[in-house]
Amino acid sequence: MEVASDIRGWDELIPDTLALIFTKLSLRERLTMIPMVCKSWASAVYGPYCWQEIEITDWSTAFTSIGKMSLRTRKSFTFIAKNAGSLRDLRLPRCNMNDYAITRLTRKLSMISFLDLSYCVKIGSNAIKTIGKNCKQLEVFCWNMHPTYTWGKPFEDAKAYAIASTMSKLKRLEIVYHLITNEGVLKIISSCPKLECLDLRGCWGVKLDTMSVKQNFPKLMVLRPQVLDSDVDEYNYNDDGMWFYEGRVEEL
């Protein structure tokens, strides 16, 4: 009499479980190896769970050799492109996209909660409004700049107003070295009630009233303009729930 085995084959696992396992693999392995194993694995890797996060460096590397990949791999790319709505985390630092490209991209990113567009210098306030309107689940937005790009340019709050008017669910916002003023910052923190962390390092047009901010937004952590990257460890946490820098101030 045969004894029933409690051990199940890999091909018998439910697709969602397989997909969660496959997320631990590199992008290239997901695109070139997994679809070749068996039909159940191919079906699982084409599912949305495998594509909620994409490391853009791996993605770019894989894309350069797409011509060498198999038909199934091409199918993987097609599937990802058509199902961008599954993405939760997208990081595109230093990308060369303009407002038009951002508008087309974000139409498919309704589930994004983390977006990093740092050092993307061609993006304007119109693109920011589009991102906010299309990505209604956005909680973390990183749009840091390099000081050499903003140095000597006039202050303006159009981009800050765009963030304030469309990204009310933000919990963390990084806008290092942006050309905003007090008005823009106050508009953001008053329009984003869930905001917990605001990174304003290098935003020299911002001179907030520390006591006023602490009283009105007691749970907000603020990294102020004068803070250097090497000084972050010198922050102290106040009993009222707000972080303020107490280390040295950078001299211009």
From TrEMBL:
Molecular function via GO: ligase activity
Signal sequence bounds: none
InterPro entries attached to this UniProt entry: LRR_dom_sf
Taxonomic superkingdom: Eukaryota
Name of the molecule in the record: Ubiquitin-protein ligase
Keyword entries, A-Z: Ligase
Residue runs in coiled coils: none
Keyword Ligase: yes
Taxonomic lineage: Eukaryota, Viridiplantae, Streptophyta, Embryophyta, Tracheophyta
